[in-house]
Specification:
This is Dinitrogenase iron-molybdenum cofactor biosynthesis protein. The protein has 3 helices and 5 strands; from the N terminus they run E-E-E-H-E-H-E-H. It has 130 residues and is α/β, with parallel strands linked by helices. Helix 2 links the parallel strand 4 and strand 5. The protein has one domain: Nucleotidyltransferase, domain 5 (2-Layer Sandwich), CATH 3.30.420. It starts with a strand and ends in a 27-residue tail after the last helix. The protein has a 5-stranded mixed β-sheet, with helices on both faces. The relative contact order is 0.21.
Length: 130
């Protein structure tokens, strides 16, 4: 089984990245051989549609499970259509998330956990309205 975990860096001790589409890295854990592989998320810097593009990348990796903080409706639809189980958690490292999943303490979600465009920017816009 392949588990894909969104990560803030390319290290397994890194914290989970809560924004699926904008996650800098995906860590792929292969439960059959115990190997971990870090893959840079090519959609992280996309100007639009990052969630959909990231979901397509995860599907190409043939992941069975995605562990992330939140996933929006468009990305969830792509993942669901590809048969990828979506599980959420926050405040833990990639390694801890894998352990929690293997113990069965993480719960599969049955729909999106974030609204459309939730990962856009970081709320630091200066606003243009006067």
């Amino acid at each position: 089984m392949k588990i894909c975990i969104t990560s803030k860096s390319n290290e397994p001790d890194s914290d989970i990245e809560p924004r699926f589409g904008r996650a800098p890295y995906f860590i792929i854990a292969d439960t059959e051989n115990g190997k971990l592989e870090a893959i840079e998320n090519p959609a992280a810097g996309a100007t639009g549609g990052a969630g959909i593009q990231a979901a397509q990348e995860v599907a190409k990796m043939q992941a069975d499970v995605l562990i992330t903080g939140n996933v929006g409706p468009n990305a969830y639809e792509v993942l669901s259509t590809a048969g990828i189980e979506v599980v959420t958690t926050t405040g833990v490292s990639v390694k801890e998330a894998i352990e929690q999943y293997n113990k069965g303490t993480l719960e599969k979600v049955s729909g999106p956990t974030a609204r459309t465009h939730a990962g856009m920017g970081r709320g630091q816009g200066r606003g243009g309205r006067k």
